[in-house]
Design a protein that fits this description.
Bound molecules: (R)-mevalonate
Strand content: 15-25%
Number of strands: 13
Distance between the termini: 9 Å
Enzyme class: transferase
CATH topology of the largest domain: Ribosomal Protein S5, domain 2
Oligomer: single chain
Family: Belongs to the GHMP kinase family. Mevalonate kinase subfamily.
Main location: cytoplasm
Low-confidence stretches: none
Largest sheet: 9 strands, mixed
Cofactor: Mg(2+)
Mean pLDDT: 91
CATH class of the largest domain: Alpha Beta
Pathway: Isoprenoid biosynthesis; isopentenyl diphosphate biosynthesis via mevalonate pathway; isopentenyl diphosphate from (R)-mevalonate: step 1/3
Helix content: 40-55%
Order of helices and strands: EEEEEHEHHHEEEHHHHEEHEE
């Protein structure tokens, strides 16, 4: 049996602007998606998504691609990532051996924590080991990015890179992807318990930008400046400054109309109990927020009191892992 895990992530700065080639910074968090892969003696591919709300999905794979063997009553978004990942690898190596995959997730789906990236990275790492392909972490991140882009019709490399590498990462699309070594941060991640669609929100920002480019373009550029200033503040361990910049970033995300009432409640209530900074993370429209500050218990309590769910309270240096 091959076991792999990959972490989810939060954006410290830069979501949405990263779609327009501005720099972004993200951090892997201590909640992961696990894949267990076991070889079968036949050609069947069996998937047990567990917490992803389906009991079992089975396929037969041939040169023509997948043939679903059991009927699904409703759509299952993660399935597209799974199918595209298996298809990509199988086409590269032209193998049709069967296997079973067990998926366990600690991340809420559609919650802005990069669950689709963690699933894809974990699965590519498992297939990498199964077929002895010797991809390194960067190659796993690149393959996973290709899959996210294909399934979502557009994505930045930030989620897949951060999940594969772990730690705090800086991403300049099309240019550099860097892992920041030896950084720790006191964070709390809270969920609104509202699912949201990244592709819809990305389209919403695009429309706003087209209709008001003279106003929105400078705001997108400002987010890029916040990321660069935030990077310096992080390197100098000026965490209150990091918090201040997170708050400014949130103000602009609000102007881009991707925040909502529940997010605002969690963000303002965590600031009120002493968070140095607090903002939504990911696409917004629900999903999750991240607060920075050393008064973690007060911050967690503020999230719970407003009916939010505390999802994570630590970043992690560990990217994708294989056992
Ligand atoms: C979603 O997690 C972050 C966005 O910037 C989209 C992306 O980068 O692909 C909104």
């Amino acid at each position: 049996m091959i076991t792999t895990t990959a972490p989810g992530k939060v954006y410290l700065f830069g979501e949405h602007a990263v779609v327009y080639n501005q720099p972004a910074m993200a951090s892997a968090i201590n909640k992961r998606i696990k894949i267990e892969l076991e070889e079968r003696s036949d050609k069947e591919i069996l998937i047990h998504p567990n917490d992803l709300s389906f009991k079992e999905i089975s396929f037969e794979y041939s040169e023509d691609g997948f043939k679903l063997k059991n009927k699904l009553k409703r759509s299952f978004p993660s399935l597209e990532y799974i199918k595209t990942a298996i298809d990509l690898i199988k086409r590269e190596i032209r193998d049709n051996s069967g296997f079973e995959i067990n998926i366990t997730s600690e991340l809420p789906p559609a919650g802005g924590l990069g669950s689709s990236a963690a699933l894809t990275v974990s699965l590519i790492a498992a297939l990498n080991k199964f077929y002895g392909l010797n991809f390194d972490k960067r190659e796993i991140a690149n393959k996973s990015y290709k899959i996210e882009k294909e399934v979502q019709g557009g994505a930045s490399p930030c989620d897949t890179f951060t999940s594969a590498m772990g730690g705090i990462t800086k991403v300049i699309p099309g240019e550099t992807l860097t892992k920041k070594e030896k950084m720790d941060l006191p964070i709390v991640v809270g969920s609104t318990r509202q699912e949201s669609s990244t592709s819809k929100l990305v389209k919403k920002v695009k429309k706003l930008k087209i209709e008001n480019s003279e106003i929105i373009d400078p705001l997108i550029d400002d987010i890029g400046k916040i990321t660069l200033k935030g990077e310096k503040a992080l390197e100098n361990r000026k965490l209150r400054k990091v918090g201040q910049l997170m708050d400014i970033n949130q103000g602009i995300l609000d102007a881009l109309n991707v925040s909502n009432l529940k997010l605002s409640e969690l963000i303002y209530s965590t600031r009120k109990v002493g968070a140095w900074g607090s903002k939504l993370t990911g696409a917004g429209g629900g999903g999750c927020m991240v607060a920075l500050g050393d008064r973690k218990e007060e911050i967690k309590n503020a999230i719970k009191v407003r009916d939010g769910e505390v999802i994570a309270d630590q970043i992690t240096a560990k990217g994708v892992e294989v056992r």
